[in-house]
Specification:
The chain is mainly α and about 500 residues long. It is about 70% helix and about 0% strand. The radius of gyration is 32 Å and the shape is globular.
């Protein structure tokens, strides 16, 4: 014990003071560890600060400090009258705001546009909030019921028939197209060297068209023509359509054992459709018709972008699955479709859909100009979405499908319940990036005489009442703010969805 006590050491001198630890938290810590921790970061921080100073400060001065906020004409936004260098001319935006939102939509009917916007927000917001219930019903109303109601609200008009008349009309159009093609081939046989072969082909096509016309004769004459000849033809057609569709749903739902739920759902759905028809007066001509050439402004931008976003994703999913199909015909068609539309500029697609497509349609069949542009944009964007979805499908391990097959799941259930949800979760950033790009590309519809937000803005510049040096800058700044709000909102919501769906990958 004495040896241990004698060998112990006790310090008698105090240690020298050490410097305080470097602060790494708070604003000072952020500056020290992120912005000024190396010569390179110091240089980049200085350059970034100068860039912000020379961009944000002038923008704030133009939009807020030096702006003119009230006035009745251009004189309020002139420097000699204001007494200072005038920035943004906000009275111009206040005066032209109805044109920027509605275009040339009749002022007395603009309540229809406002009601459409309200319905869209009322159905979209609950769909985007994850905790709210009844997502299936909400999605059905937004994706199926709302487009029909919005069409009759914005365009107006009524209906002269229902499912039976529509089916008969489509079949007649298809039959007329076949007979017309056969007659065209017969016309070529008179001047062609292969006249006998063309004559046989033409007569065969005409014979097929005649056979189809005889097959659809009961539908077109006994049912549709008789119903239209009677009073209240719309409601008679509606009743027949309801009965036919409900019976089909009852049979597909399982018949007498399990088909009653499908039958009740079909009857309830048609009952809701009848209520909408009666409330909007669609059986009596509906609302006054407002042709699409009077639409413009933010209305056209939202119609084109929302329609393109909603329709392009199903098209892209179908093409992506078709490109991976083992059936050669489906795979070749999907590849050809995707490569064709991806190899053509959007401007060319819009021009072709607007001016060339009517040349390929039958003479008695016309398509509205806005609808033609919507179809072209949906197909064009769908080809790009197909490649995004295909990238997500390629990221799914093969073992996922093999495990589903081991459990006895069919290809459809494996794809819809296991593979596709994971693939879409992987490509959320790519999908939203395409949506944002589509929203901004809607300005290209101005080349086909459709006035979107930017088109209406440029049209408003021709008003001499508001011709000032800052008018154009104010208008483009306002349009830029609108585009930024929508695009930034989509970007932030995509981050929220991505973070929520990838909770299993958080550290």
């Amino acid at each position: 014990m004495s040896d241990i006590a004698s060998s112990s050491f006790v310090r008698r001198d105090l240690l020298t003071e050490r410097p305080a630890p470097v602060k790494t938290t708070g604003f000072v810590g952020l500056m020290r560890t992120r912005l000024f921790n190396s010569p390179t970061n110091i240089l980049l921080t200085i350059v970034g600060a100068l860039l912000l100073w020379f961009t944000i400060v002038p923008s704030v001065r133009f939009l807020m400090v030096d702006a003119v906020w009230s006035g009745k004409d251009r004189t309020a936004c002139l420097a000699e009258n204001a007494g200072f260098a005038v920035g943004a001319c906000w009275p111009y935006i206040q005066a032209k705001l109805p044109q920027l939102i509605y275009g040339f939509y009749p002022e007395a009917e603009r309540w229809r546009v406002n009601l459409t916007f309200i319905l869209a927000v009322a159905l979209l917001v609950p769909l985007l909030v994850p905790r709210l219930p009844a997502k299936g019903l909400n999605a059905s109303l937004f994706f199926f019921a709302f487009p029909v109601v919005a069409f009759f609200l914005l365009h107006g008009g009524g209906i002269k028939g229902f499912g039976l008349s529509w089916t008969a009309g489509l079949l007649e159009l298809f039959d007329d197209s076949i007979i017309g093609a056969g007659q065209a081939v017969l016309g070529l046989s008179k001047t062609s060297a292969a006249a006998p072969l063309l004559w046989l082909v033409g007569n065969f096509i005409v014979l097929v068209g005649t056979a189809i016309s005889w097959l659809i004769l009961p539908l077109t004459w006994l049912l549709r023509d008789q119903i239209q000849g009677a009073g209240q033809s719309i409601w008679a057609d509606f009743a027949v359509t309801t009965a036919v569709v409900s019976l089909i749903a009852f049979g597909l739902g399982g018949g007498l054992r399990t088909g009653w739920r499908a039958l009740a759902s079909s009857i309830v759905a048609f009952g809701a459709i009848a209520i909408v028809i009666k409330l909007m007066g669609l059986d009596r001509g509906g609302l006054p018709v407002v042709t699409t050439n009077l639409w413009g402004g933010l209305l056209v931008t939202l119609v084109v972008s929302v329609t393109g976003i909603v329709t392009s994703l199903p098209i892209g999913i179908a093409l992506a699955l078709g490109r991976r199909s083992t059936i050669p015909l489906i795979r070749i068609f999907s590849i050809a479709f995707i490569e064709f539309w991806r190899g053509v500029p959007l401007i060319t697609v819009l021009f072709f859909a607007t001016y060339m497509l009517p040349l390929f349609l039958p003479g008695n069949f016309t398509v509205d100009g806005l609808v033609r542009a919507l179809i072209g944009i949906a197909l064009f964007t769908g080809a790009y979405q197909a490649e995004n979805v295909r990238g997500g499908l390629a990221a799914i391990p093969r073992g996922q499908g093999e495990a589903a097959a081991a459990l006895g799941l069919s290809w459809w259930k494996t794809t819809s319940l296991i593979v596709l949800p994971q693939a879409l979760r992987h490509v959320i950033p790519n999908l939203v990036n395409s949506f944002i790009s589509l929203f901004k590309d809607t300005s290209l519809v101005s080349i086909v005489a459709l006035f979107d937000l930017l088109g209406s803005l440029r049209a408003s510049f021709s008003d001499p009442k508001w011709s000032t040096p800052s008018t154009a800058f104010t208008g483009f700044a306002f349009a830029g703010i609108i585009y930024f709000i929508f695009c930034f909102g989509m970007s932030r919501y995509s981050l929220f969805v991505e973070h929520r769906l990838n909770a299993h990958r958080r550290n």
